[in-house]
Write a structure and sequence with these properties.
It is built from 26 helices and 29 strands. By secondary structure, the protein is an alpha+beta fold.
């Protein structure tokens, strides 16, 4: 069954207080029998027991059946403990908040037995075998020490293991319960290997079939034992032996009554029995009794029709044949001890039933989520260089600087590849959109009604950027860029356009734009021509320079106006469909000292401005997250420590680490979901629905991807810090966990 090579284990190795607790121990154990590890405190017997049961690490080789284990492999030992080993601990290690039935069912679920009938059959048989048949529903924490130990025995036997490990199973019991427990263990050893630790030589001699004696970590004696222990069963307080009492009979053919009393002389009993509608009523009159108790199938008191001496002999021949009643075909794939449903219920109950201090922490998590929504939206806006955030002019513009003493001319630039137009002195112009009511009564437009736009002249290619309406067909028509709507619909704007509902592409298209006193029909809207109105370039200049004193335009061509403006400007702009080729052409001209892509300039300026903001927001977000992480760590650490006993039981019984991780993962997710995530979504909802000006101004940016990314970051970091306490705890061996719990 179990065979070892030379095993060695040290405590405090290479220190002054080093202890060689297992010293070159080599042992071979049979398939059945009661093998006792005997020795005084500190002899190494419990450590050896833990090592042989996979509860602790050791240097050396262990063979369990055909499984060879030369290093402590957690997953392998978990599987062995789960399937093949049952444990009876000195301190019982029952889950006291659960019933007797639930404690035993837990081990059956672990090995894949979920069929209710099979579970009921096994538990009923085992509880009857240990004398606790009517204790199924009793909470484990409400039982006496002897009763708890018998439940532990039933739990150990439930999965029908090959080996039973018993660590000082009678150490906390009185003499009566000691004999009861040892009687049961002795019966178990008839068909299974029971490995038991004790320091009581008399107990070992009375019951063991083999005694291995240890001293200072070494085996000093290994011998067979007759095990002729006294198997009598001590009388339990809940057992009433009827033949030891005084009996009085009443039999009139219809009513048969037997009265048993522990006193020979008793007062006459005046009782009335009433049977009505299937219900039996008992009237005791004025008689006083210390206690009145009715018997049913769930009663803990047993009525035994025998003398106490007769029962002793009957208990000696009592058989234990558990394997005959179980059905191994009911065993399925291993099941998690704690279901997902139970894990969620447990997590929510913890939040609801938390202390006032922890509830304040949860409120803090919610607030941190709210703050984080603003920070993440701001970070994304600062990090995301979307054109609409920094472009105030059309894309594909080139800025050219002329050297001192030089003057640019139209002809120097006209041959550039990709050139569509040039603007020597780009400037914003104030325009107005005609509002009939205002125009009819000659009312003045207010400050918020002023619209400032740059001119754009690429009529040949503008058609591809039209998103509403049509292209320009006449010189008195214009296109507006959709970015204009941001000015009109500004949250704090009180413009007449917004008030009258003239604030959409549909409402504006077809109206008149007033530019330098002349009217132009708005025929549609473009995109990516940021902050512009598009019109014929010659018409633009003739309108701009037209005065009431001029009957004819100053120039008939664009070139004339541009050359005139070149005389007053050292900088000019060129619009191109091929910026790289245009820049390459312009660099051939020695009179130009600076040629730059305007889109690149504006993006770089934007990123420079946002870099400081990005760093500040990053630091602030790290502070908020760090506070959340630390708080969550301590919340989960408290949760782990509160359930230390439960964790010790689970690990000792062979529950896998990953099953326990899942339980705490769900708790972290629930805490995060009902606190940080709620706060985060409230913040996002506020930004998008009640404060869109922040989005319009590029201060914040909320997208599906940015939201998902932030959620993933929060979940990932919360999971990491939330699971850290359980990960740290479960690094310990089951033996170390039990020691921590006992301490």
């Amino acid at each position: 069954m179990i065979k070892t090579g030379k095993l060695n284990k040290y405590f405090n190795k290479n220190r002054k207080n080093e202890i060689h607790v297992i010293n070159d121990i080599e042992v071979s154990l049979p398939d059945k029998g009661l093998v006792v590890l005997l020795g005084p405190s500190g002899s190494g017997k419990t450590t050896l027991l833990n090592v042989l049961g996979g509860l602790d690490k050791v240097k050396g080789e262990i063979m369990f059946n055909d499984i060879k284990i030369d290093k402590y492999k957690v997953s392998k030992w978990d599987e062995i403990r789960n399937q093949h080993i049952g444990y009876i601990f000195q301190n019982y290690l029952l889950l006291e908040q659960l019933s007797v039935y639930e404690n035993i069912r837990l081990t059956l679920n672990m090995v894949g037995i979920t069929d209710k009938d099979e579970i009921d059959k096994r538990i009923t048989y085992l509880l009857e075998a240990v004398g606790l048949k009517n204790y199924k529903k009793r909470k484990a924490g409400m039982l006496s020490g002897g009763q708890q130990q018998r439940v532990a025995i039933a739990r150990a036997l439930a999965k029908n293991p090959q080996v039973i490990i018993a660590d000082e199973p009678t150490g906390n019991l009185d003499s009566k319960n000691t004999i009861e427990v040892m009687n049961i263990i002795k019966k178990i050893a008839e068909t299974k290997l029971v490995l038991l630790v004790t320091h009581e030589r008399e107990l070992a001699t009375a019951y063991a079939t083999r005694i291995i004696e240890l001293q200072d970590g070494k085996i000093v004696d290994d011998s067979a034992s007759s095990g002729l222990g006294n198997l009598y069963r001590v009388r339990q307080d809940t057992d009433i032996y009827l033949k030891d009492l005084h009996r009085h009979e009443l039999n009139d053919g219809l009513l048969n009554v037997d009265l048993y009393s522990d006193q020979e002389d008793i007062q006459a009993l005046n009782l009335k029995l009433v049977l009505n509608n299937g219900t039996l009523y008992i009237d005791f009159g004025n008689q006083k009794f210390k206690k009145i108790q009715l018997f049913d199938q769930n009663n803990e008191v047993k009525l035994i029709d025998a003398h106490y001496e007769d029962e002793q002999e009957a208990q000696e021949v009592h058989s234990f044949d558990y394997e005959s009643i179980i059905d191994e075909t009911k065993k399925k794939k291993n099941q998690p001890v704690i279901s997902l449903k139970h894990s969620f219920r447990l997590a929510f109950s913890k939040i609801i039933n938390q202390t006032k201090r922890k509830r304040l922490l949860f409120i803090g998590f919610l607030i941190s989520g709210l703050i984080l929504s603003f920070i993440s939206a701001s970070l994304y806006a600062a990090f995301d260089a979307a054109e609409e955030n920094y472009m105030s002019r059309p894309v594909n513009m080139v800025l050219v600087t002329v050297k001192d003493g030089y003057r640019a001319t139209y002809s120097q630039i006209d041959g550039a590849t990709g050139l569509t137009y040039m603007v020597p002195r780009p400037e914003q112009h104030q325009i107005q959109i005609s509002v009939p009511y205002f125009d009819q009564f000659n009312l003045n437009y207010g400050k918020d009604d002023r619209i400032y736009l740059y001119p754009h002249f690429d009529l040949e290619n503008v058609g591809t950027s039209i998103i509403y309406g049509r292209n320009i067909e006449n010189t008195n028509e214009v296109l507006l860029d959709v970015s204009l709507l941001k000015q009109i619909n500004h949250e704090y704007s009180s413009s007449i356009y917004k008030m009258l509902g003239i604030n959409s592409m549909k409402e504006i298209t077809g109206r008149t734009m007033i530019f330098y006193g002349k009217e132009f029909t708005i025929v549609g809207f473009t995109e990516r021509q940021y902050g512009t109105f598009t019109m014929d370039q010659l018409t633009y200049y003739q309108t701009k320079y037209w005065t009431v004193f001029e009957e004819q335009p100053k120039y008939d061509t664009v070139e004339g106006y541009i050359n005139e403006e070149f005389g007053n400007s050292r900088e000019f702009f060129v619009h191109s469909t091929d910026v790289k080729q245009t820049i390459a052409y312009l660099k051939l001209n020695t009179s130009f000292e600076g040629i730059e892509d305007l889109t690149t300039i504006e993006r770089d300026n934007f990123m420079d401005e946002r870099q400081t903001l990005f760093i500040s927001l990053s630091i602030f977000s790290l502070i908020i997250l760090s506070v959340t992480w630390v708080s969550l760590f301590f919340v989960m650490r408290t949760s782990v420590l509160d359930r230390m006993g439960e964790l010790s039981v689970f690990r000792a019984l062979g529950v896998r680490k990953k099953d326990l991780y899942k339980t705490y993962l769900i708790e972290v997710l629930v805490i995060t979901g009902v606190t940080s995530m709620i706060g985060f979504f409230l913040g996002i909802y506020y930004i998008t629905n009640f404060n869109p000006i922040l989005i319009e101004q590029g201060i914040v940016r909320v997208t599906f991807l940015s939201t998902i990314f932030t959620i993933l970051i929060v979940l990932a970091t919360n999971i990491l810090f939330g699971l850290l306490p359980i990960i740290m705890i479960l690094r310990k061996t089951p033996s170390q966990l039990m020691s921590s719990y006992d301490a």
